[in-house]
Amino acid sequence: MDRDVINRKLESLRRGIARIERLAELRIISPRVATSLQKAVAFRNILVHNYTNMNWDIVANILTSHLTDFVQFAQAIDRLNNDNDQKP
Predict the structure, then answer these.
(1) Residue 41 confidence (pLDDT)
(2) Pairwise CA distance, residues 40 & 20, whole Å
């Protein structure tokens, strides 16, 4: 794989993690949810690029045991959108 492609992908990963950190700094999401989502971003990268060697039992466990983190994230963003909708 071309070094430029790898660097772009790594930068995209860094930006995603930085965005999650910023949401926690702004107290839009909790630090615990931020940490979980940062791990999810990294896991997604592994999953996408190494799916042929993936232990699907681990994937299923992660998806079922951490679903509440995604729900809490969605609820936080929904609250933020509702707050913005109510501003004059």
Answers:
(1) 84
(2) 11
Whole-angstrom distance, CA of residue 88 vs CA of residue 80: 15
Q: Which amino acid is at 44?
A: R
pLDDT band at 32 (very low <50, low <70, confident <90, very high): very high
Residue ranges of alpha helices (H) inside 1-88 are 3-25, 31-49, 56-65, 67-85
How many whole angstroms separate alpha carbon 88 and alpha carbon 84?
9
Domain that residue 39 falls in: 3-85
Distance CA(34)–CA(23), nearest Å, equals 8
Q: What is the pLDDT of residue 87?
A: 65
DSSP 27: T
Q: What's the one-letter identity of residue 41?
A: V
Looking at the structure of the chain, the number of domains it has is 1
Q: Note the residue count of the chain.
A: 88
